[in-house]
Amino acid sequence: MKKFNKICAFLLTATLLVGCGKEKDKTVSALPSNGSTSVATSGKEKTGTFEKLYQTLYSDSKVMDHIFDEIAKQELLKGMEQTELDAIIAERRQETLEDFAEKDEYKDTSLTNGVISLFNEKLLVRELRLSGLNIPCANNEYGPEINADYTYKEGKVFKCDYTEYFEKKVDSAILQHLLIEKYIREVKPNTLDKNETVKVKYLAIPSADYEYLAEKDPLVSYVELEAGVTPAIGHYVKTGENTYVEITASNSTEYLGTGTYTYYTKVETPQYEKATARTKQFMIDAVKALVEGKTLEEIEETWEANKKEVEQFTYEKACPFDADKVNKNYDHANAENACSEYTNKGSYPDYVGYALKLHNIEKAEYVLEEVIDSSSSILNADIVTSLFADNTEERLHTLVEGSNTKYLVSSSVATGKTFSANDIIISDSTNSKYYIIQVELINSELDGEVAAEAALKDEGIYYLADTNSSIISAALEFYLTQYDITVHDEAFYDYLDVTYPKIEFDY
Length: 507
Description:
Helix content is 39%, strand content 16%. With 507 residues, the protein is an alpha+beta fold. α2 (60-76) packs across α5 (163-187), α3 (82-101) packs across α5 and α5 (163-187) packs across α15.
C-alpha cells in the first residue's frame, strides 16, 4: 500500500505538479492557462510569453532532480538532524573539489620551475565561470600554496568560494547519492550479499630487480688535534708519510709525553655504492615486517626512502658536471651525460630535474585501498577471480594469531594445506608486479554496533550507490512510490510513464 508523504513545494515543478492530495484532473491544461500572455510589457514593446518562459525552464531531467532532492531531504531528516546532514554535504563537497585537483586538465607548471605539473585553481575557476557560475576569489588570489618539495600546503589548495557551483551542480547529486545509500542500508541490506563487494588494501611493487645503497669500507682520514687538546690513548701519531699508529696502553709510554710527534684523530666517513637486489627478497622482508607489527604504509615508506637515497646518491655523483668527475671513475662512465639526465639536455638547471625526480617518487602510490566488485580491473583477472570465488574465505591467511587482518594467498598455493607467511606474496607476471593484499569481506551481517564493521559496511554501501545502475534505479523507483505525485503536464507525464513504467502517476 502506498505511503502518501506530502511534498507541496517543488519550485520549478509548480506548473507540473498540483497541490498534495488532489483528485486526478485530466481537464487541466498541460500549459499555463495564461500561456499566450506576455511576461512583461513597456509601452508597445512586449517580451516573450509565459508559454515560452515555461518551455525554457522546463526540462524532464531537471524536474526529476528537483523531485528527488525534495524526497531525499525528507527521507534523510527522518534519521538525522539538519546539522548532521549539512556536515555530510560539506564533507562531500570538499571531496568533489579534491577530485578536481587530481585531473590533468587543471594542472600546469606556472607554480614551479616549468617542470612539475601541479593543480592550478585558476584553471578550474576559469572553466566554471565560463559555464555561467559565479566563483568569487578574494583579492583575486588562487590556490594552491606549495611547499619547497612541491607538495600542497594543507588547507591552502582552494582559496575561492564555490558556493554557487555546489548549490547548482553538486548538492543534488550528493542528496540523491545519500538517498540511495539509505535505501540499501534500510530497505535492501541484502543487496550487499547479492552484489558481492570486498575491500582491498594492497602493496604493489614492480617485480624487476631494484637498486639500493650498499655500505662500502669507510673512507679513512686523519685530522690533527686542535691546539689545547691533550693527546691520549685512542689518538694517533704520524710515523711516516701515510703511516699512522694508534696510541694504546702498551705503547703510550713511547708516544705520549715525548713532544716529538704530531697527534691526530681518526675520522671514518661512511661510503656507499649502488647494488642490485631481488625484489622478491624485499617482499619476503615486508612479510616479516608485517608479522612484527609494521603496516603496509610503513613498508611503502621504506621502499620510497630507498628510492630517494639511490636518487640522491646518483645525483650527487653526477652533478654539477666537471671534467674531474670523469677521471674519478664514479658510477657513470660519462658524468656529463649522467648530469644531463637531470637537465633534460639543458632545458633547466640540474637541481630542478633532481627535485622533479624526487617529486615523482613522492607522488607514486605503492599502497592502494579500494572497495571493488567482481567486474573490477584494478587487479588482474586471476586475482579478482580468487577474491570472488566460492572458497575465498579459505584462501585468506592471518599472519598473527588473534589478528583480524587477513591476506589473500597466492593462487599458486593449493587450499587445504597450512599456509606459510610467504604464501601471501602474489606474483603477477601480466603486470610485472608483486602484491600483498589485505582483504575485508563486505556483507549485510557486519555488525553496525562495532565501529570498524559499521565503517566497512558504509564503504560497501557507498560503492554500490555509486556504481550499480540497477540498484540506483531500484532505489529511485522505490522512493517515487512512497510519495503522491500528481502531474499537470502531458509531456512530463509521458516521460515518467516511459522512465518508470511500474509506477502509476496521477494526471
